[in-house]
Amino acid sequence: MTSTNQDIEQLLLLCKSSNQRAQLEIYNRYNKAMYNTALRIVKDSYRAEDIMQESFLTAFTKLNTLEDTNLFGAWLKRIVVNNSIAHYNKTAKQNEVPLETVIYKVEDDNGIEECSQNSDKVKHILKVMKTLKPNYSLGLSLHLIEGYDYEEICDIMDISYASCRTMISRAKESLRKKLMQTA
Predict the structure, then answer these.
(1) CB of 40 within 8 A of CB of 126?
(2) First to last CA, the chain
(3) Given 2.30.29.30, 3.40.50.970, 1.10.1090.10, 1.10.10.10, which CATH number is that of 116-182?
(4) pLDDT (tens digit, 9 = 90+) per residue, 103-112?
(5) Quick one: fold of 1-96?
(6) CB of 130 within 8 A of CB of 40?
(7) Contact 39, 48 (CB under 8 A)
């Protein structure tokens, strides 16, 4: 076991006893990744930040239900994804139009914090993905960026397996066509 895993385990033990410094340290280690995960789903930086905060609160209050502390990161990410999907579904039902589609907004490039962010191709693909239908964009983000398999996407989006495969296939084709048009 690496020292990082041991360190996380010790921090989580302290978090279970409501140690605020340990909670802050856990927050500082995971907040960027969790924010980016939420942002890719809800496509609104303020909502993504709120969802991230709520997810951390949920995680800290339900930490006793976590059986394997080595899985904390994946468990936290699942909480963020579930909260993001719940918000996405809520806004989709209300037919809200994101403010970004109504007025011009300068992008803040907080989407991906990895070395690949500097790649113009990645930026272009992510920009084109935002122009896809909302369910296509969400499905592709979950599958290609977040790494979820079809079964998990079915559960998250509450669709059948066949619908999921068809949607992702059509989303990929739509993305290919839009990329060819803009190339």
Answers:
(1) no
(2) 47
(3) 1.10.10.10
(4) 444 444 444 4
(5) Rna Polymerase Sigma Factor; Chain: A (1.10.1740)
(6) no
(7) yes
Q: Looking at beta carbons, which pairs linking 9-13 to residues 24 or more positions away fall under 8 Å?
A: 9/69, 9/70, 12/63, 12/66, 12/69, 12/72
Question: pLDDT tens for residues 8-47?
Answer: 888 888 988 888 999 999 999 999 999 999 998 888 889 9
At position 119, the amino acid (one-letter code) is S
Residues 165, 177: contact at Cβ < 8 Å?
no
Q: Is residue 52 very low, low, confident or very high in pLDDT (cuts 50, 70, 90)?
A: very high
- Residue 22 sits at the vertex; the CA angle it makes with 18 and 23, to the nearest 5 degrees, is 65
Q: Where are the domains of the chain?
A: 1-96, 116-182
Q: Tokens at residue 176, please?
A: 């290919």
User: 10 Å Cβ neighbour count for 150?
Assistant: 17
